[in-house]
């Protein structure tokens, strides 16, 4: 995987569970192929949206192998790497390489919010553990660790196979700041669904997307319109899409995105504990928004 591959719409794919709580690997393959058929440029497995932290090591390997089998010959398959310890994160990176993945999305350590020296050491250990192309994931809202633009530049200087950064601080100025420091050295991808048009305008070249799991054609079209400078068309589609895109930025984002998938007939609401399916009132309100938005889809 080259730096130029970190572009376009790349789904952070959900993990489907069957009625007994196991992983529906056949649907993993069907779902990934469906999104790639719609124009997605890669797929990230085992991220936060994929409930990667609730999967065993064996399950992680099965999901990655299923993604590689389904779409690996067509687009890059990227593994989300997140663990409590650096040793475990390195093991996950090595496992991903063995499963046939060609890229890694590297998160900071779970739970422990260390100094920059410690955080940098963690990122460097994981990125250098394999020769795979890597993307550093910055999401201070979710993980409490903030990769400042200057720190991203430090990582890039010391890690030749760091090719991208997923910027999810929800501050569009970060994209401008990273590009000012690094130019074309790293590709910047938007990691917040309801910031995609603004992010592309600021210089982002890709989107690690959530609602794409349910609406891949609309997601690819929105990104393409924003990238190509078709402002009026992009704004019209964005306006239609925003009620759903905002579901990506709340604590129940996994449940909500899976609910949208169920509503379009491409998945179920099942999640793995400690997550639970939405309670009746919240679910009913979400269904009204989803169905109302989908009903007006042809007019967008």
Care to describe what's here?
This protein is an alpha/beta fold. It has one domain (3-228): TIM Barrel (Alpha-Beta Barrel), CATH 3.20.20.70. 46% of the residues lie in helices and 12% in strands. The chain contains twelve helices and eight strands. The chain has helices spanning 25-37, 57-71, 86-99, 116-127, 140-143, 149-158, 173-182, 196-202, 216-227, 231-245, 253-263, 280-295, and strands spanning 8-11, 43-45, 77-81, 103-106, 133-138, 162-167, 187-190, 206-209. Strands 1-8-7-6-5-4-3-2 form an eight-stranded parallel sheet. The protein starts with 7 loop residues before the first strand and ends in a 5-residue tail after the last helix.
Summarize this, please?
With about 300 residues, this protein is an alpha/beta fold. It has one domain (about 5-230): Aldolase class I (TIM Barrel, Alpha-Beta Barrel), CATH 3.20.20.70. The protein is built from 12 helices and 8 strands.
Estimate what percentage of residues fall within beta strands.
5-15%
Low-confidence stretches: none
Structural class: alpha/beta
- Overall tally of domains: 1
CATH class: Alpha Beta
The strand count comes to 8
Strand order of the largest sheet: 1-8-7-6-5-4-3-2
Q: Give the H and E element order.
A: EHEHEHEHEHHEHEHEHHHH
Rounded to an integer, what's the Rg over CA atoms? 18 Å
Q: In the CATH hierarchy, what is the superfamily?
A: Aldolase class I
Ends: how far apart?
35 Å
* CATH architectural category: Alpha-Beta Barrel
On the 0-100 scale, what is the average pLDDT?
Answer: 97
CATH fold name: TIM Barrel
Shape: globular
Please estimate the helix content: 40-55%
Number of helices: 12
Largest sheet: 8 strands, parallel
């Amino acid at each position: 995987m080259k730096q130029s591959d970190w572009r376009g719409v790349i789904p952070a794919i959900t993990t489907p569970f069957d009625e007994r709580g196991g992983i529906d690997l056949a649907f993993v393959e069907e779902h990934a192929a469906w999104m790639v058929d719609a124009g997605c440029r890669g797929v990230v497995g085992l991220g936060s949206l994929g409930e990667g932290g609730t999967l065993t090591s064996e399950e992680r390997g099965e999901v990655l192998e299923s993604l590689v089998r389904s779409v690996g010959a067509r687009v890059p398959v990227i593994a989300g790497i997140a663990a409590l310890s650096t040793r475990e994160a390195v093991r996950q990176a090595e496992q991903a390489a063995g499963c046939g993945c060609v890229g890694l999305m590297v998160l900071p350590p779970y739970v422990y919010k260390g100094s920059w020296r410690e955080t940098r050491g963690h990122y460097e250990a994981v990125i250098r553990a394999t020769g795979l192309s890597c993307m550093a994931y910055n999401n201070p809202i979710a993980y409490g660790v903030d990769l400042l633009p200057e720190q991203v530049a430090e990582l890039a200087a010391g890690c030749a196979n760091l090719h991208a950064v997923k910027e999810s601080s929800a501050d569009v100025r970060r994209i401008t700041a990273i590009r000012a420091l690094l130019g074309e050295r790293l590709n910047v991808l938007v990691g917040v669904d309801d910031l995609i048009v603004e992010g592309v305008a600021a210089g982002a070249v890709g989107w690690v997307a959530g609602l794409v799991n349910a609406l891949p054609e609309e997601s690819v079209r929105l990104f393409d319109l924003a990238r190509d400078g078709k402002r009026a068309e992009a704004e019209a589609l964005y306006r239609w899409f925003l009620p759903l895109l905002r579901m990506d930025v709340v604590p129940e984002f996994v449940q909500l995105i899976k609910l949208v998938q169920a509503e379009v007939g491409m998945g179920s609401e099942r999640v793995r504990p400690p997550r639970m399916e939405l309670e009746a009132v919240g679910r009913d309100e979400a269904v009204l928004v989803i169905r109302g938005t989908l009903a007006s889809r042809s007019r967008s």
